[in-house]
Design brief:
The protein has 102 residues and is α+β, with helices and mostly antiparallel strands. The protein has helices at 4-13, 16-25, 32-39, 43-55, 74-93, and strands at residues 30-31, 59-64, 67-72.
Length: 102
């Protein structure tokens, strides 16, 4: 079943800019400068979103000189995907179950 940690990740991904960042990081590891260019967000706004993504466990950082690169942690999304697949399978199996009203 979905846990409170899963619910936190879902909540974090509910923001359109964070979802865009995750989509970009699914393609390649990027630094803050790249993410600002790709999203059009202000650097301070982007940094705040990156903090939220890090705290949710979705991304990890990699220092490189004066830059910080961000890398997506695919195992987090894969785990969430498995949980949704199980939920969908359960819903299919329960499709014929109907509780009678008193």
């Amino acid at each position: 079943m979905l846990t409170s940690v899963d619910a936190d990740v879902i909540r974090v991904l509910g923001d359109s800019l964070r979802l865009r960042i995750v989509t970009l990081l699914a393609r390649e590891t990027l630094c803050t400068t790249h993410l600002v260019e790709e999203t059009g967000a202000k650097q301070t706004n982007l940094s705040n979103h990156m903090k939220v993504l890090r705290e949710a466990g979705l991304v990890e950082t990699e220092p490189c000189g004066r830059f910080t690169y961000y890398k997506l942690k695919p195992e987090v999304l894969a785990g969430l995907s498995e949980q949704f697949a199980q939920l969908a399978a359960s819903a299919v199996a329960a499709g014929q179950n109907k509780r009678s009203c008193p």
